[in-house]
Amino acid sequence: MKPADTRLELLIGQLLRIGVLTSTICLAIGLVVSLIRADAGMWLLNAGIVMLLVTPAARVVLSFIEYTLARDWFFVAATGIVLIELAAGVVAALVFHRRM
User: What secondary structure does DSSP assign to the chain, as a single string?
Assistant: First the structure.
C-alpha cells in the first residue's frame, strides 16, 4: 500500500466519523427538543438527516480531490463519473419534486 493510499484512507475515515457524529448530535438534540416542545426540533432533525445523506457524497468529493492531486487519472475519471451521477440525481430530484 502506498503512503498516498494510507493518507486517503485516513482522511476518508475522519470525514465519515465527523459526518456521522455531527448527524447523530443533530438528531439527538432535535429529538429531545421535539419531545419537550412539538415541532421545535424539526430543523435539527432535518439537518441531521441531510448531514447523514451528504456524508457519502463528501467522501466522493474528497476522493476526487485526492486522486487529482496524486495524478491518478483513472480514478479521477471514475470518481468524476460518480460525482456527475450524484449531481444528476440531485437535479432530477429537485426538478421532479417541483412538478408534484
Answer: --HHHHHHHHHHHHHHHHHHHHHHHHHHHHHHHHHHSTTTTHHHHHHHHHHHHHHHHHHHHHHHHHHHHHT-HHHHHHHHHHHHHHHHHHHHHHHHHHH-
Q: What is the pLDDT of residue 100?
A: 62
Over residues 27-64, the pLDDT tens digits come to: 999 999 999 998 889 999 999 999 999 999 999 999 99
Contact yes or no for 43/98 (Cβ under 8 A): no
Q: Does the pLDDT value for residue 7 go beyond 70? A: yes
* Full-model pTM: 0.81
